[in-house]
């Protein structure tokens, strides 16, 4: 599949140089693979989750060949910039700070409130104590702005483990990620405090110089929103949550 | 893997375990042990090459060459590993792509550095974007191996430089007195005898190298520690084999692996030491 087929008409006023770019383009999709249900590595060792479904469908609609690449969250933006892959599709909220470095497509998942989780029976004060969050996330930035002390971890798993072993009083993360964890904990963990609305929706991160790909993906996202297939995928992966697009 | 694994929830504990331990992800975990060995096998010769080059440059009689040797060994040893591992492979990758870009896409009109972005034409990508994932991984692996070799080569260069200078000068002079050329003195007297001084330092480095392999994941190579973390992490009901936080168990497996590897290495170096010091009137040898 080439870009050429897709960029018909006006979009194809491309110079010889850019059409050389378009040949044999395989889009490499970068994800973290550790943030169920957004993205995770399933038991067969493959990338799976909401974003895998969305990404594959977007590529199909945009007539692109896509492969999946797993990269650590910490270095996920630098590796996009140095072109080791072409998109970040890893539950990344659209923020101004990130937008200065990379570009985002339109959101494919609406803003999701973040929630605090602590050991069952903890009081609401836990959210003002020591709060665990993943490094370079909107949650880490939020906690740093409150009266609580933030401790940062490289992976979401470690933030939850910190609460379990008492290193932190609470953890702040996306509600969808934590609700699975709370459910699986057999009552050991519980939500505390009120959910906080931080960050915008979730979009796909794309290099600023890659306007072509951004436009293509935006078109595909719009078409998935229009025919309801995106809402269906959200319902499938997020316990029947209904979203209006 | 087995036929009876279709419905894990209905399985007895033994069959559950036999299914669980043979999932695709576990197979990847087992393969990653070989990745660690492969890294060690690839890097050790490279490290020795860098080490000898560094050591010989440092004792070169030509001043600029000596400077190169000194700058290499002191600079690389002074920079924190983690910074080095983030910098070298990315710089190397971009360097290769830049050269390929210049060679293959002379008609390209845009600049390569666009703000933060590093953009080269599609044909110059290394490896080409459409190649299979394993090619990308192999390429990443060799970049990583190269970065490891540069870092550990600098440490080993210092060890070997020291060892070369530890061979008693009187012996070298005796060699010259017998009419050997400088080259002969080096090959016949200095080099064979320096190993006994170098081995303790080199065995140290080997142990550190073995423990440093988890840094691979920084470079995108999925190693045993990554898989242990990933497999051991809490698996919610979304997974075929849900379980609680089992990371401790997986880390104990790694602990046993690393201890075993250290033990075998220790034996090997003991053997090597007794071999190289045979007949030498030096350090641990008999007189």
What order do the SSEs of chain A take from the amino end to the carboxyl end, as H and E?
Answer: HHEEEEHEHEHEEEHEHEHEEHH
How many strands, which pairing sense, and closed or not: the largest β-sheet of chain A?
5 strands, mixed
**At the third CATH level, what is the topology name of the largest domain in chain A?**
D-Maltodextrin-Binding Protein, domain 2
Q: How many strand units of chain B?
A: 2
Query: How many domain modules of chain B?
Result: 1
Identify the CATH architecture of the largest domain in chain A.
3-Layer(aba) Sandwich
> How many helix segments of chain A?
10
Judging by the overall fold, what is the CATH architecture of chain B?
Answer: Orthogonal Bundle
Give the termini distance of chain B in whole angstroms: 61 Å
Mean pLDDT of chain A: 85
**Radius of gyration from the alpha-carbon trace of chain B, in angstroms:** 25 Å
Residue runs with pLDDT of under 50 for 5 or more positions of chain B: none
Distance between the termini of chain A: 29 Å
Q: What is the residue-averaged pLDDT of chain B?
A: 86
Low-confidence stretches of chain A: 1-24
The CATH homologous superfamily of chain B is termed MetI-like
Proportion of residues in extended strands of chain A: 25-35%
Number of domains of chain A: 2
Order of helices and strands of chain B: HHHHEEHHHHH
Task: Indicate the percent of residues in helices of chain A.
Answer: 25-40%
Please, what is the oligomeric state? Answer: heterodimer
């Amino acid at each position: 599949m080439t870009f050429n087929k897709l960029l018909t008409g006006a979009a194809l006023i491309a110079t010889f140089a850019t059409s050389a770019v378009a040949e044999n383009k395989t889009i490499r999709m970068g994800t973290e693979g550790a943030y169920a249900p957004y993205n995770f590595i399933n038991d067969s060792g493959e990338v799976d989750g909401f974003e895998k479904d969305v990404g594959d469908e977007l590529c199909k609609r945009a007539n692109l060949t896509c492969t999946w690449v797993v990269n650590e969250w910490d270095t996920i933006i630098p590796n996009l910039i140095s072109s080791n892959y072409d998109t970040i599709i890893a539950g990344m909220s659209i923020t101004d700070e990130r937008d200065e470095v990379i570009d985002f497509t339109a959101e494919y998942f609406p803003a999701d409130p973040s929630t605090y989780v602590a050991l069952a029976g903890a009081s609401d004060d836990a959210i003002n104590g020591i709060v665990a969050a993943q490094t370079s996330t909107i949650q880490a930035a939020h906690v740093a702005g409150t009266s609580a002390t933030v401790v940062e971890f490289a992976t979401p798993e470690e933030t939850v483990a910190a609460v379990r072993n008492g290193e932190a009083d609470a953890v702040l993360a996306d509600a969808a990620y934590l609700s699975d964890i709370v459910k699986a904990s057999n009552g050991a963990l519980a939500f505390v405090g009120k959910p906080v609305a931080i960050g915008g929706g979730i979009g796909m991160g794309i290099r600023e110089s890659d306007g072509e790909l951004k436009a293509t993906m935006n078109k595909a996202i719009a078409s998935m929103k229009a025919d309801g297939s995106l809402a269906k995928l959200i319902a499938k992966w997020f316990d029947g949550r209904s979203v209006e697009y | 893997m087995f036929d009876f694994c279709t419905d894990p929830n209905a399985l007895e504990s033994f069959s559950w375990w036999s299914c669980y331990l043979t999932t695709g992800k576990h197979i990847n975990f087992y393969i990653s042990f070989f990745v660690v060995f492969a890294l060690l096998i690839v890097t050790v010769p490279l490290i020795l090459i860098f080490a000898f080059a560094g050591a010989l440059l440092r004792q070169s009689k030509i001043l600029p060459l000596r400077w190169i040797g000194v700058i290499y060994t002191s600079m690389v040893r002074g920079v924190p590993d983690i910074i080095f591992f983030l910098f070298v492979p990315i710089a190397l990758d971009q360097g290769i792509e830049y050269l390929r870009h210049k060679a293959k896409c002379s008609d390209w009109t845009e600049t390569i550095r666009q703000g933060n972005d590093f953009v080269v034409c599609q044909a110059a990508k290394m490896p080409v974007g459409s190649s299979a994932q394993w090619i990308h991984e192999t390429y990443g692996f060799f970049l990583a191996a190269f970065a490891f070799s540069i870092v550990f080569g600098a440490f080993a260069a210092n060890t070997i430089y020291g060892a070369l200078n530890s061979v008693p000068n009187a012996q070298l002079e005796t060699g010259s007195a017998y009419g050997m050329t400088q080259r002969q003195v080096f090959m016949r007297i200095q080099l064979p005898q320096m190993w006994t001084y170098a081995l303790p330092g080199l065995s140290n480095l080997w142990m550190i190298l073995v423990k440093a392999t988890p840094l691979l994941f920084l470079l995108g190579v999925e190693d045993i520690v990554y898989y242990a973390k990933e497999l051991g992490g809490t698996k919610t009901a979304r997974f075929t084999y849900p379980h609680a936080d089992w990371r401790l168990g997986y880390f104990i497996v790694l602990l046993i692996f690393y201890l075993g590897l250290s033990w075998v290495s220790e034996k090997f170096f003991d053997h090597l030491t007794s071999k190289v010091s045979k007949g030498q009137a030096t350090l641990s040898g008999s007189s």
